[in-house]
Amino acid sequence: MLEIKNLHVKLEEEDKVILRGVDLKVNAGEVHAIMGPNGSGKSTLSYVLAGRDGYEVTDGSATLDGEELLEMEPEERAAAGLFLAFQYPVEIPGVGNMTFLRTAVNAQRKARGEEELSAGEFLKIIREKAKTLKIDAEMLKRPVNVGFSGGEKKRNEILQMAMLEPKMCILDETDSGLDVDAMKLVSDGVNALRDAGRSFLVITHYQRLLDHIKPDVVHIMAAGRIVKTGGPELAIEVETNGYADLLAGVQ
Amino acid sequence: MAVLQAKQDALAARIAGLNLEHKGWTAEPRAAALARLTAMGLPVKRDEYWRYTDPAVLTAAATPAAAPVPAQTPAFAPIERLKVVFTDGVFDAAASDDLALAGVEIERLATAGAKDIHWAQGLYGQLETRGQVPVERPLAAMNTAFATDGLLIRVTGRAEKPVALIYRHESEGSDAILHHCVKVESGAEFTLLESGAVAARYNTVLEVDVAAGGHFHHIRTQGRDHDRRCVTHLFARLEEEALVKSFTLTASGRLTRNEVILELNGDDGVAHVAGAVMGEGAAFLQDDTIFVTHAGERCESRQVYKKVLRNGATGVFQGKILVKQGAQKTDGYQISQSLLLDEDSNFLAKPELEIYADDVKCSHGSTSGAIDETALFYLQSRGVPKAKAQSLLVLAFLAEALAEIEDEAIAGDILHRLELMLGAMED
């Protein structure tokens, strides 16, 4: 599914290297978690994969089902099946949530050569999916993320994911700013989307999210590289002992 | 006085070929306007009120040529309306509907002006005259003096449909001066629509007098005539509990100066003026010059101007709120914003407040900004192509101005036109 090889990335504007040779392979249907201390490059990895400006890839590749992602525009990556749930979902005053989602869904369908959804069809699907995420009609009508609480923003991200049905989902600290109940709700939303053809890359600081979204593989990232890979037990080790011991062992 | 002399010389050259009507009831206001105009002369760029917009092309003796605009689907086509067509400033009877509408008297200035007495005597040139203080508006006085036609509309009830002024521009060198008067009687309601290319060059005045409790809505589109050079004036006076809402969508054109002069004369009046501008190219200059006077108590005024500028286009906003002594509990709001889609475009803004009452709420703001890159990326990351994402953000930016259109069907038509324009930009 997703294969990252020797990825090196620096900031475009300054001479700051952030990723120093990331290697990662996520197979179809797998859930991988990336943990790591602040500043290790986790969010940068997610932004670079999604195609945000401001980063320069100096070496390496990232492919989705064999297609080179790094050469595509962000919207092409989305149409190819990549989805990034933002750590800080963006507020867009003046653009209705519903308009936004319908435009996005239909743009992707169009890019893939599929028929666009009519307003009626779209409404039916979104109502159903919004309900399971406890997103009410009022929230759908409001401008994108404007005036949403932290939890509402994250639920809205998961709703977008559910509507767009990507095959590779990256969740960037989706647990940040969530209380216990909201985390459960968001996790249930994610788990409902798990299937054999869909993979997840879950970036988090805390083991707690991984209690809800159970990973197959856990990676530890530090100083721009994956330094250790293991099973779910690795996350528990981080939670108990912190990163210091782990990193000392690697270095 | 060399400057004044030069302005007066320019005036003499400009009006040399124009005919001053000296028959009928308009003779007196026309002569008075000419006297005002002669005392002022024509404006020049050195005048404070024209510092951002060079009036030379509007005051030149010779009419600049402008390519005629091919026939097109007019704005407001889906709206049921009474159509009145002016082609190159000349009334087009064949293309117009009968000037008959329940609760509304509609006459032409050119014909009604020949009468000896007329209800419009108390209005024609009157609001324009009041609007000359404290800022001189010679082009408005010139209009009153030399207007060749226009509509005189008196509204006594609730008009069942809007009157739509449809302008057509077919002659390359046409130079139009049109003057409309609207009197909305107490408790009456009326909507005026304006669309189309008027002439190669034009100067319009719309004087609107709204009596107590009357409502006046005005929605206008200016677009597609790429060589447009014009100055328009809306003078409105509101009595107690009167309401005026005016919205203009401007695209294309070379020089478009829209002046709005509002006077909240009675208590509890509401006046909203708004503009949405799509400017493209270095030849584009659009100027909104607004003056709102609060004389009554507890009145509310809003100015909402949004300009999207790209490829070297220039947008100008000069907006003023004057709160007179005794105009307590005034609620004045003014916002002017530009969205600059590249580094070549310009937005020049001069917001002003002048307040002589001590219990008022007035706010004003002016911003210039680029597209929000984070929002753009967010939309793209969801699969929305960049050009489409930009269109969504442009519409979002203009939304506050569009929200000033009360009628949903009309607002929908304006939105549709904007979407078409943005769609064309996406390709």
TrEMBL record, chain A:
Pfam family, one: ABC_tran
UniProt keyword Nucleotide-binding present: yes
Keyword Cytoplasm: no
Domain (ABC transporter): residue spans on this chain: 2-248
Keyword vocabulary terms for this entry: ATP-binding, Nucleotide-binding
GO terms assigned for molecular function: ATP binding; ATP hydrolysis activity
CDD domains: ABC_FeS_Assembly
Family: Belongs to the ABC transporter superfamily. Ycf16 family.
The name this protein goes by in its record: Putative ATP-dependent transporter SufC
Name of the gene this protein is made from: sufC
UniProtKB/TrEMBL annotation, chain B:
Organism: Pseudogemmobacter humi
Originating gene: sufD
A Pfam family recorded for this sequence: SUFBD_core
Domain SUF system FeS cluster assembly SufBD core positions: 170-397
GO annotation, biological process: iron-sulfur cluster assembly
Protein name per the record: FeS cluster assembly protein SufD
InterPro entries noted in UniProt: Fe-S_cluster_assembly_SufBD, SUF_FeS_clus_asmbl_SufBD_core, SUF_FeS_clus_asmbl_SufBD_sf
